[in-house]
Amino acid sequence: xxxxxxxxxxxxxxxxxxxxxxxxxxxxxxxxxxxxxxxxxxxxxxxxxxxxxxxxxxxxxxxxxxxxxxxxxxxxxxxxxxxxxxxxxxxxxxxxxxxxxxxxxxxxxxxxxxxxxxxxxxxxxxxxxxxxxxxxxxxxxxxxxxxxxxxxxxxxxxxxxxxxxxxxxxxxxxxxxxxxxxxxxxxxxxxxxxxxxxxxxxxxxxxxxxxxxxxxxxxxxxxxxxxxxxxxxxxxxxxxxxxxxxxxxxxxxxxxxxxxxxxxxxxxxxxxxxxxxxxxxxxxxxxxxxxxxxxxxxxxxxxxxxxxxxxxxxxxxxxxxxxxxxxxxxxxxxxxxxxxxxxxxxxxxxxxxxxxxxxxxxxxxxxxxxxxxxxxxxxxxxxxxxxxxxxxxxxxxxxxxxxxxxxxxxxxxxxxxxxxxxxxxxxxxxxxxxxxxxxxxxxxxxxxxxxxxxxxxxxxxxxxxxxxxxxxxxxxxxxxxxxxxxxxxxxxxxxxxxxxxxxxxxxxxxxxxxxxxxxxxxxxxxxxxxxxxxxxxxxxxxxxxxxxxxxxxxxxxxxxxxxxxxxxxxxxxxxxxxxxxxxxxxxxxxxxxxxxxxxxxxxxxxxxxxxxxxxxxxxxxxxxxxxxxxxxxxxxxxxxxxxxxxxxxxxxxxxxxxxxxxxxxxxxxxxxxxxxxxxxxxxxxxxxxxxxxxxxxxxxxxxxxxxxxxxxxxxxxxxxxxxxxxxxxxxxxxxxxxxxxxxxxxxxxxxxxxxxxxxxxx
Length: 762
Description:
Blueprint: E1 3-6, H1 13-16, E2 32-36, H2 43-49, H3 60-72, E3 76-84, E4 87-94, E5 97-104, H4 111-117, H5 128-144, E6 151-158, E7 163-171, E8 177-184, H6 191-195, H7 217-233, E9 240-248, E10 254-262, E11 268-276, H8 300-316, E12 322-331, E13 336-345, E14 350-357, H9 364-368, H10 381-393, E15 397-406, E16 412-421, E17 425-434, E18 438-450, E19 455-464, E20 467-476, E21 485-497, H11 498-501, E22 503-517, E23 522-536, H12 544-547, E24 551-565, E25 576-586, E26 594-607, E27 609-625, E28 647-648, E29 656-657, E30 668-679, E31 688-700, E32 712-713, E33 719-730, E34 733-744, E35 751-752, E36 754-761
Parallel strand pairs: 2-4, 5-7, 8-10, 11-13, 14-16
Antiparallel strand pairs: 1-6, 3-4, 6-7, 9-10, 12-13, 15-16, 17-18, 17-36, 18-19, 19-20, 20-21, 21-22, 22-23, 23-24, 24-25, 25-26, 26-27, 27-30, 28-35, 29-32, 30-31, 31-33, 33-34, 34-36
């Protein structure tokens, strides 16, 4: 019957239960060596560890070294060496062979992951030291997941033929959270403010989707650095974290974390100067790149930004080797910091080779074309950082490391690029609801790195109660090996506009496009679209101005868009601005002749506190027929209301047939929005912010038809809507609710107070 033995994990077996010391009279000559107990170990293998040979005098010290050498092999659980007369007798007890490694009680971590971590494997020799190491490895895994009260108990099940089954019995325990985060020594910022700067958070019920409320020593080190950066950005140049201590509660169900800090004095910028050792370079021409001035509170982030900006500016002037050093001098008497940006000539180092590894699927040229450095170029740390960021932005790699290595000569360097590829194929499903679009559902399948060439292919289907879209798109980001993103779209759309203007429309066609960047923030795109459209299901009671539009038509359009975009991020923007101008011309071989231009602009700025964001933006546009065309198709007119003018329904303002109530669209429009986003006093990680806004806009320029004198209202007067809202970036997708009041309107406008939007992808 198999015997279950519980292992006492501790020191190696010979240290726990040492074998008797070698016995024998010193000086006795060994006539022979007798080895017993070895089953799998070869005799010659055992002899190779013995420091006593036949014909040699017996030496107790050599026998002791032989004993330890045999134990250190891990092959034996017991070893004894004795002199019996003139015969040296070595008795061995071999460690068993592991027949199977099993895990019991583990629910949060799968067996395969644990098997990859432990060193004990099937068919290896069983050793207590290795099992002890495995227990620590398993506990480390659980601690990374926040389970500090996990218990691992190894057991062996003895089998015949010197084999054992090794079983790790695991009690995973509960997640060990953070009970309290405290600060000692903070006089100018409250505990709550400092908690908002670090990554670790206190445990709470609403943080069930986050792991930041679990203790992690590495995250604690990150928190120390985040505190340092925060204080340095607020002017506390002497700040330091004295200690960061995590204490496990007596019942082992949570940690108490205490940061002891020394804030020091708060400094302002004193004299800010630029000096240079380059001949012909005027420092005064670079002062526009300074982001601080004398009297401002000291901010280390602004110093770093200035170093980067000046380095790039000097490099763009043709100076290849640039080293900008910010020399700081503290004036403790008046608490100011004098700053001198010293522009020096850096070491003359050139890029010799760019070595790429880890890309099993992505082609080398896809990686090389993202580099701002080429082989033979002057080495630049700023360009190296930008190149690494561009590779990360591709989304093809889970990890990107670019490391400079010495080249063949001191003035050359090699760039070793190590990437870890990740899946770039994706299938996603989506669901949502909005006041304008109704219930929405979509599915898309795509590949962002087609055949490892960096090409993007996507097929999407969106179905809704008010609209449907089917779209196949392809993009080659480097058309003809140039920095031109070219591609095509094949699409089919349908829209139910019965609630707005008593008709429906559809289109099917394709588009060709090409775009490129002039700078990091300036881009241009050209697009050609050919589609067949249809206005159908026009109700009998619809306005004659709409009934006259029923039927099919062909649109052939060329459009161009130029954009200047400095936003820090596309969603939840906190700073920067966007200016975008688009013009379009419709004509042959289509049936619609028109031109259209639109201008959009928005700026974002932080005010008072980091989480208080104000944005001011607006849009304007005009469209006109030309040639033989005297009227504009409904699908080429502007409609205002809803998302772009809150307080009014979709298509709620502008020309309207008063006899039928149908919105007719217009030729001219403008809208403007001022919105403030602010915290509501809730924990930041919940993702709920408040909104307050004022929208303005107008739409005018009604169409007419011969023989019909409709009672059409058309006014260019300004409409105003104001309101408040809440936005929640929930685990299930963004949710936004707005309540707006029409402050200024016309009697025939259609208003709407409550707007709701929800959507997610999974």
